[in-house]
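Lecture notes, unit on protein representations.

Consider one protein chain, 470 amino acids long.
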Amino acid sequence: MTRPWRRLAMAAAFLAVTACTVGPDYHRPDTPVPIAFKEAPVGWKLAQPGDAARRGAWWHVYDDPVLDALVAQVAISNQNLKAYEAAYRQAQAVVREARSELFPTLSATPSLGRERTEGKTTATNAAEVSASWEIDLWGKVHRQVESDVASAQASAAELASLTLSAQAELVTDYFALRYQDSLERLLEDTVAAYERSLSITENQYAAGVAARSDVITAQTQLQTTRASAIAARETRAQYEHAIALLVGKTPIDVTIPPGKLAAMVPDVPLTLPSELLERRPDIAEAERTMQQENALIGVQVAAYYPTISLSGTFGYAGALGSLISASNQVWSVAASASQTVVDGGARGAEVAAARAAYDQSVADYRQTVLTAFHDVEDELSDLRILEEQSEAQAEAVVLARHAVDIALNEYRAGTTSYTTVVIAQATALSNEETALGVQQNRLTASAKLIEALGGDWSTRALPQSVAGIR
């Protein structure tokens, strides 16, 4: 290596070793975290350390093979999630692009030429290698890489958050579909009961102990219930179409056989409130965004310092036959520095904007954390109150059915009008529908609670290394 090139290499090595990184180092800011959940009832099961680890698909707690098969398709076929997965791969490519600026740029320039001037033909041949390197003396590139890595991690967390949301939406739609199945079965059973009531009124009318209006009332009640059963099928079809969209298929490709609404609501073990910060992908996304914005402050601060670049060229130029020889050797080395002297306050404004963007990301992070605790508390209170409502509603159903039996017996005995029977039957049906609705709401609340707790996700699933940069 010639002496100028040795000096250039030594200067580059010295500058690289003595380089520093300007701007603030990232530290996650504090956020208020309660010691316990307000709405957690006494005796609520607290998850053990092993329970909080990833155990597989969270929707398996409902023990429904049809639901398992549907939700498993969300992450594979949902087109919205595919778009966000592509955005994550794009963020990874941005990291690799930023990382490349840490290294010199090398280029080779071979050339062959012939020229004739004043009757003479001369050949011009050259083979040169050139290098240029803008030394990251103040850590601008390192801060940009740090920002881009955090951005890629935020993109991964966003993908996880959207996946969890789509899965929870499908589970909710599935419970709504099963509610329509159970409602249709209830209405069909009610139609059969009303047909028996109609037969009683027709017999009473034929015996001359009931009015024609009783028969018409019974017929009207029967047809109205049949129409409601048809409407339930129509609503069910809409939920089936919604599920098809979530799994990335056309409605004709998804057919869900009829089934019952689950009778049992699974227990959802709670974690400590502090662990919620590690389980919610939206919190992880907001936290990674903070580091992204914090690193960008350093990028802007580095603009206050001079930019130092090294460049050099080495090669040969001459006749093609004797091109590679000491006499044809050509080289050049250069070092340059540039410093903005007056910019009208542009750098200061850019630093201030970067600090403001970081402050905004801190506020967004804290709001995301508060929203997470709000979501958990909402679903805990819903589950607690709905359980109480379910118990009261179950008793109301039993009493309403008993009232129908009494009213029909009294009508047969001629001691009460058919209006009493109709009112008792309508009340019974209303209570049955309400009981189904409460059960659907309980199942939905349990799914939303699991979503609010982060599903089976944790920050351990977040890529700790992106494109080789930690």
